[in-house]
């Protein structure tokens, strides 16, 4: 080692000149790379640039010191990653993961400034929701108290904004209300059945959704005509309102239906759900009537059948913007249902198609599961008519189940070791898959698929499915 050090010392001047020349001239394609990884590889070579730098630094020569500094800089270790606070991690999770494939993804970041004043209800609502979502995802429930404190402050600021006619119609106010609804959906824990898909939704979420409906009507149609963001907000809030009504089997309020009909033309090309609006309204009305009637009338069942066939016609000839690919039969991964897989241009499009299938699930469940409650009038229907409806429901539910299960791979990440985890956007599967699991007309093999692959364990927020 001493001999090596002596040799290096004798040649340090010439090496310094050579090294400086290399620093000034651009690297050749076959020469040493200037990347950090290449520098580290050179430092570990037998000639040991690290040792050279150490030896050069002990020399009194100024040119030697320059060479040592350059070599040491090239071979220094990479700086450790920055440590992020819990608040920063929560915001990153919200913007990059939690709201992926939702309408929030298209506009929410533009309404958030990290150093907003304490009076900014929108920023407070985003902070609260980010922390709640991150705490749930990371299972760090100690952060929930801080999230709720931010929520309470945001709610106070929103109420103050709503009391002023000028601020009540601003975009920031509506965004804050939508984010507060997302917070309620995030922290809601369904204490009912194993699926959050059946009938329950948090009261506060419904209240915020209803508040958004009032704001939409207060804002009027003029903002939609002049602002693309206003159109995004209307489409988002409107879909939430309709999802809430379907979730609770409640009719869509007539004043909002009329307002929605007047402004729908302004949303063409901006909201992919516009072509589904009429079908969505019909299904919602049927669900509301079914809840009101103690016994199912044959008229209601036949109406459900007719609407289901209208949805089939839509699926057979969808708009070009909604097209997707059915992969060749039996070409999917071994763990998928019947190895059937669909491919979509985006997760948003995949969710939209599952929303269409969810509408069919509601109708087919009425025809299949609820047919026992039908009031049979022998002058209107015979027993074989009811039997035929049940068989229709069983056959078509098998098709719908297959189509929905074919979308599961879109929401699953498979690691290099073969383990599978759901993407955050996969929580939208909870509602349709939960109903399928409980349905008496769902194929038994499809129900087994839900259990065998842990699909029913996906973290769900079913009642915000249409968002």
In short:
The protein is mostly helical. It is 60% helix and 2% strand.
Structure description:
Keywords: Nucleus. Residues 32-78 have a biased composition (Low complexity). The protein folds into two domains: 2-25 and 33-75, no CATH class; 188-464, no CATH class. Strands 1-2 form a two-stranded antiparallel ribbon. It has a two-stranded antiparallel ribbon with strand order 3-4. Strand 3 (412-414) and strand 4 (420-422) form a beta hairpin. The chain contains 20 helices and four strands. With 467 residues, the chain is mainly α.
Would you spell out the secondary-structure blueprint of this structure?
Layout: H1 2-10, H2 12-24, H3 36-43, H4 49-57, H5 62-75, H6 86-98, H7 121-138, H8 144-162, H9 165-168, H10 171-187, H11 203-219, H12 222-226, H13 228-247, H14 254-267, H15 277-292, H16 298-316, E1 325-326, E2 342-343, H17 347-368, H18 383-405, E3 412-414, E4 420-422, H19 430-438, H20 444-452
Antiparallel strand pairs: 1-2, 3-4
Helix pairs in contact: 2-5, 4-5, 6-7, 7-8, 7-10, 8-10, 10-11, 10-13, 11-13, 15-16, 15-17, 16-17, 17-18, 17-19
Largest sheet: 2 strands, antiparallel
Average pLDDT metric = 78
How would you write the strand order of the largest sheet? 1-2
Stretches with pLDDT under 50, minimum 5 residues: 1-74, 190-199, 456-467
What brief labels describe this structure?
single chain, 467 residues, 2 domains, two-stranded antiparallel ribbon, two-stranded antiparallel sheet, disordered C terminus
């Amino acid at each position: 080692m001493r001999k090596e050090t002596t040799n290096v010392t004798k040649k340090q001047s010439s090496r310094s000149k050579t090294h400086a020349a290399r620093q000034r001239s651009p690297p050749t394609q076959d020469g040493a790379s200037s990347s950090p990884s290449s520098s580290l590889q050179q430092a570990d070579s037998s000639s040991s640039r690290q040792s050279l730098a150490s030896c050069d630094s002990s020399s009194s020569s100024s040119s030697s010191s320059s060479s040592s500094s350059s070599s040491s800089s090239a071979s220094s270790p990479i700086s450790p990653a920055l440590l992020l606070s819990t608040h920063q991690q929560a915001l990153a999770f919200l913007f990059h993961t939690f709201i992926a494939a939702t309408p929030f993804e298209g506009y929410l970041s533009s309404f958030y400034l990290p150093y907003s004043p304490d009076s900014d209800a929108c920023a407070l609502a985003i902070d609260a929701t980010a922390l709640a979502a991150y705490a749930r995802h990371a299972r760090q429930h100690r952060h929930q108290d801080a999230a709720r404190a931010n929520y309470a402050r945001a709610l106070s600021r929103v109420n103050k904004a709503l009391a002023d006619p000028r601020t009540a119609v601003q975009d920031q106010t509506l965004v804050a209300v939508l984010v507060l609804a997302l917070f309620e959906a995030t922290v809601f824990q369904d204490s009912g059945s194993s699926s959050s898909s059946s009938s329950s939704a948090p009261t506060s979420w419904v209240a915020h959704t209803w508040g958004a409906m009032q704001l939409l009507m207060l804002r009027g149609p003029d903002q939609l005509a002049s602002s693309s963001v206003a159109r995004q907000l209307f489409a988002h809030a409107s879909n939430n309102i309709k999802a809430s009504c379907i979730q609770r089997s409640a009719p869509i309020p007539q004043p909002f239906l009329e307002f929605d009909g007047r402004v729908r033309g302004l949303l063409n090309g901006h909201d992919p759900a516009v072509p589904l609006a009429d079908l969505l309204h019909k299904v919602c009305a049927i669900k509301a009537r079914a809840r009101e009637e103690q016994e199912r009338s044959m008229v209601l069942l036949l109406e459900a059948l007719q609407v289901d066939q209208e949805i089939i016609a839509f699926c057979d000839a969808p708009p070009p913007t909604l097209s997707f690919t059915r992969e060749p039969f039996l070409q999917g991964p071994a763990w998928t249902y019947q190895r059937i897989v669909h491919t979509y241009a985006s997760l948003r499009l995949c969710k939209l198609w599952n929303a269409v299938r969810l509408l069919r699930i509601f109708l087919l469940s009425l025809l299949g599961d609820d047919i026992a409650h039908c009031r049979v009038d022998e002058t209107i229907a015979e027993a074989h008519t009811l039997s035929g409806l049940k068989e229709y429901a069983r056959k078509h539910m098998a098709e719908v189940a297959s189509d929905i299960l074919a979308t599961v791979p879109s929401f699953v990440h498979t690691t290099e070791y073969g383990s599978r985890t759901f993407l955050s956007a996969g929580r939208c599967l909870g509602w349709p898959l939960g109903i399928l699991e409980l349905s008496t007309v769902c194929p038994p093999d499809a129900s087994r698929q839900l259990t065998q692959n842990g699909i029913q364990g996906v973290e769900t927020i079913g009642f915000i499915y249409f968002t």
